[in-house]
Design goal:
The structure is a homodimer. By secondary structure, chain A is of the alpha+beta class. Chain A has helices at about 15-25, 45, 85-95, 145-155, 170-189, and strands at about 1-10, 25-40, 50-55, 60-70, 75-85, 100-115, 115-125, 130-135. An eight-stranded antiparallel barrel of chain A has the order 1-5-4-3-2-6-7-8, surrounded by four helices. The longest helix of chain A is centred in the C-terminal third of the chain and has 20 residues, at about 170-189.
Chain lengths: ~190, ~190
């Protein structure tokens, strides 16, 4: 399954939620904690892959994400998820196999459905508010049509393309922590 | 969880099943197919680890097994299993992470309970019949007592210690295929 996805930073989440409440179907409000791992044989930061355990009220799941497809502003990539019955044991198995925990991303997600698109307004701990619009396709040939549909939706919500963010929450969080560390190192000189 | 386990080759499975039917509690008869994988960063054959997906009527599970503990004739090792909801997707995730399928082991397993021990009579495709007696312990300190309990049970079934087999079904299968290939190579000279 290929996930065609666009993410954008937003400054007015409640206004967007209000608009979505009239134009889309509200699905649920959910709290998600994502634990990201790096591989023993390669650096996922370089290969642009991701492996994560997601914990939410819907039960834990394990997800692999492939490298982003294309060089546009969207975040289209292959995504494969399975449900697992035991978070702690899955974590131990991954660690035994040499995977190392990198960081955690915690967020509250307000989820809507608009036609066959999923729209979520995310309140991400330490990062702020974002909107994610995504659709699933089976083959690379279908990406373009889905991409257009997503950008039309983004446009309909008056979110400018220049606010799109291609980096994952994990990358943004690591970058932020990196710059905080650098600042404190400078302050310590 | 540490699995303390003894396995032995048997030539008279139905006689043993008859004895177990009177002395132990019959639990179930189950067909299991195990798909084994090797790691991208090390050779599990050398590190004595295992990663497998088990398919059975009880639903698929993913299991990691650590190296065997000690140099005795039993197969004591750490074992961690989780239930997964999708065999095909789990396989794709493992392959995307660089794990490669090594081989499959298929068997019919007749399972009994004797005190806190699990006893199974296995009819393994291409390998023949075996008995496995196993118990679970939480710490290394408990291994010795459990080991004694298992060997007493083996003794009670009149199975000689020299019939014990420390190699896994996977190792036995690979060895067998290796020797068949070698024989046919010799025959082709």
């Amino acid at each position: 399954m290929i996930e065609v996805e666009v993410k954008a930073k937003i400054s007015h989440p409640y206004e967007i939620i209000k608009r979505l409440n009239t134009q889309a179907t509200f699905l649920k409000e959910i709290y998600q904690e994502d634990i990201y791992f790096n591989a023993p044989d390669r650096d996922f930061k370089i290969t642009d892959e991701a492996l994560r355990i997601r914990i939410s009220s819907e039960g834990p799941e394990l997800t692999y994400k492939g490298p982003k497809i294309g060089n546009l502003i969207d975040k289209t990539r292959e995504e494969i998820s399975i449900n697992i019955n035991d978070l702690k044991k899955t974590r131990i198995i991954l660690e035994k196999l040499g995977f190392r925990e990198v960081d955690k991303v915690s967020k509250k997600r307000i989820l809507f459905q608009f036609n066959d698109l999923s729209i979520s307004v995310d309140f991400v701990e330490d990062l702020g508010e974002f909107i994610e619009i995504e659709g699933l396709v089976n083959t690379q040939n279908e990406i373009e049509i889905k991409r257009k549909e997503i950008f039309d939706c983004l446009n309909g919500l008056d979110i400018p393309f220049e606010d799109c963010e291609r980096r994952s929450y994990l990358e943004l969080l690591i970058n932020k922590k990196g710059s905080i560390n650098n600042t404190s190192e400078i302050e310590n000189i």
